[in-house]
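Quick illustration, no need to memorize.
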Amino acid sequence: MRAELHELWHVRRPQITQSVSEAAAQGDRSENAEYTYGKKMLREIDSRVRFLTKRLENLKVVSVRPSDPDKVYFGAWVTVEDEDGVESRYRIIGPDELDLKNNLISIDSPLARALIGKSLDAEVRVQTPTGEKTWYIVAIDYP
């Protein structure tokens, strides 16, 4: 998030500001597509910068292992097995780090909410769009 904020504020915004200035120098702004588009881009960048700034102020880095590593907490890699015996491994992370391709699920997701606080061999039921699914916790690991 810090890298994105830096990119937006120190690279993208100055570029867009420069292009808006050049477009404004061309004259009539009411029919100037580059000017209109540039102003819209600046609003979007400023909005994202405000969002990232607020998020970064409130973030708390969790770098210590939980006192009970046999239960699922934030940051855990959890291996679950479904009713068909298919295993999946997920890491529970913050909503800003979500990356389903790498099996990183948000703590706000239904599966993560169901897993939090559970122990090894616990049964977890989650309502999914295709109906209720049951998983069993087969491994918990903290990196």
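The helical segments are 2-24, 33-58, 110-115.
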